[in-house]
């Protein structure tokens, strides 16, 4: 299909689901002028104000796209500490980032900000329209919405959550472990003084959470009595029962603002792509929310996929580029699932896991151990496999000062760039899609590097021919 021919029902990409992953992906595609429609079954965004945490890597991505200044006033910064299995250790010193903090932000706020970002860039969003079915062929995908309306798109991306309709209709296996335990999470008022809560928490060795969250409300996390249907919201009595069982009192909880439940099911899709249909976010992977990695993993999926899918649609993508979405992101999700499994065990009250927890607590006094675990949780440790080369190859680059400002300021449009301290290199033939920054003052340990739009280093060196080879590998043939 010719993407330059306008049509009311013809899109380059249809995205199912307008959570953080879907909204971020829509914005990434619009930065490359891809025609995007997002369909969302819910008529209104989620309203309950659950606090989610943006980790360091996600904060960096927001800075890369010029979003961070809009997001920061709505969040609360705190040190990147105590993230692994809630083991209380200080944040490591000297993390290689300009954003060494966790940003707590209400989920409806981050969803609204990302959705607003996508629509400002020109994405269409239709709420109250669920994806009911689709059929793909060699030229595109025919999408059927609830109510029978049909759309035509070149690609379909399922960002429609753990119960993804897209994944199920695609027939992609979702192996893993079902939920064994369930946890209640909510925000409510309490009927006892803070001193009594603190004293009871200290005496109770089993895991639960009851902390002030502002405006007289308390955040409450407590194990549930059993595993139930997660589509059914819990009641206040469920919280009271759970609190009495674990702490001997229900603390007089009342007036809930919101109540939810989550399980420890852990699953990973076999494939992230089947033809012209792809999966991202919770549609591709689910895990317990320990460490707060879920939203971050999905947003990072979107940034990895967006420029690759846009390149495919624009016609300059190398043949295997879109397949690198699965080959890069599937192992990352696999590692996240493993670390959440480990954290889940460490939170068990049983003697064996508690012995391991005590041992790990001691080991985390070693700075390198603490740093390793925090970098794992915050996605600073990711290194994509780009083949043999220096350790920096495949890693993300932190924001660094340049003579023209900060590096991330040059990534707002999601264009790759060559950062050259030799000032001798060119991007002739690729200048329609790759930027060049000659800067002898740049604080690099290498003469020059090639950055992908997601901020990962795709080449290191100082020879023009070597650079040209890697420009072709990642960004297609030159225009001349």
UniProtKB/TrEMBL annotation:
FAD-binding domain residues: 12-340
InterPro entries according to UniProt: FAD-bd, FAD/NAD-bd_sf, RIFMO-like
CC cofactor: FAD
Example GO molecular function: oxidoreductase activity, acting on paired donors, with incorporation or reduction of molecular oxygen, NAD(P)H as one donor, and incorporation of one atom of oxygen
UniProtKB keywords: FAD, Flavoprotein
Name of protein: FAD-dependent oxidoreductase
């Amino acid at each position: 299909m010719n993407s330059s021919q306008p049509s009311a029902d013809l899109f380059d990409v249809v995205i199912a689901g307008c959570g953080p992953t879907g909204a971020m992906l829509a914005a990434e595609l619009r930065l490359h002028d891809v025609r995007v429609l997002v369909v969302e079954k819910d008529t209104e965004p989620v309203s309950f104000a659950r606090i989610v945490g943006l980790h360091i890597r996600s904060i960096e991505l927001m800075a890369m796209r010029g979003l961070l200044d809009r997001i920061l006033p709505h969040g609360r910064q705190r040190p990147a500490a105590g993230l692994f299995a809630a083991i209380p250790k200080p944040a490591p010193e000297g993390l290689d980032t300009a954003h060494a903090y966790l940003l707590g932000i209400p989920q409806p706020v981050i969803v609204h900000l990302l959705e607003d970002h996508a629509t400002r860039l020109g994405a269409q969003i239709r709420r109250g329209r669920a994806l009911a079915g689709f059929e793909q062929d060699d030229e595109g995908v025919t999408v059927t919405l609830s109510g029978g309306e049909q759309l035509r798109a070149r690609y379909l991306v399922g960002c429609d959550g753990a119960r993804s309709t897209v994944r199920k209709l695609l027939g992609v296996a979702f192996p893993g472990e079902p939920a064994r335990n369930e946890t209640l999470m909510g925000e409510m008022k309490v009927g006892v003084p803070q001193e009594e809560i603190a004293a009871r928490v200290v005496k109770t060795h089993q895991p639960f959470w009851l902390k002030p969250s502002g405006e007289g409300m308390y955040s409450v996390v407590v194990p549930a009595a059993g595993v139930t249907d997660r589509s059914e919201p819990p009641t206040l009595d469920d919280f009271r029962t759970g609190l009495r069982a674990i702490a001997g009192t229900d603390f007089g909880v009342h007036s809930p603002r919101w109540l939810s439940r989550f399980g420890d099911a852990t699953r990973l899709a076999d494939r992230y792509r089947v033809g012209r249909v792809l999966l991202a976010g919770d549609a591709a992977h689910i895990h317990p929310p320990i460490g707060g990695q879920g939203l971050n993993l999905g947003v990072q999926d979107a940034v990895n996929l967006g420029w690759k899918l846009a390149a495919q649609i624009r016609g300059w993508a190398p043949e295997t580029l879109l397949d690198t979405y699965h080959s890069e992101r599937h192992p990352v999700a696999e590692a996240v699932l493993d670390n959440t499994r480990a954290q889940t065990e460490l939170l068990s009250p049983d003697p064996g896991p508690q012995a391991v927890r005590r041992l790990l607590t001691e080991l985390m006094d070693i700075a390198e151990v603490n740093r390793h675990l925090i970098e794992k949780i915050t996605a600073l440790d990711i290194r994509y496999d780009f083949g043999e080369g220096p350790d920096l190859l495949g890693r993300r680059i932190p924001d660094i000062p340049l003579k023209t400002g900060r590096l991330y300021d040059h990534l707002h449009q999601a264009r790759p760039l060559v950062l050259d301290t030799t000032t001798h290199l060119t991007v002739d033939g690729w200048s329609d899609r790759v930027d060049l920054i000659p800067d002898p003052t740049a604080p690099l340990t290498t003469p020059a590097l090639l950055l992908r739009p997601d901020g990962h280093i795709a080449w290191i060196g100082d020879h023009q021919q070597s650079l040209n080879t890697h420009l072709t590998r990642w960004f297609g043939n030159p225009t001349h």
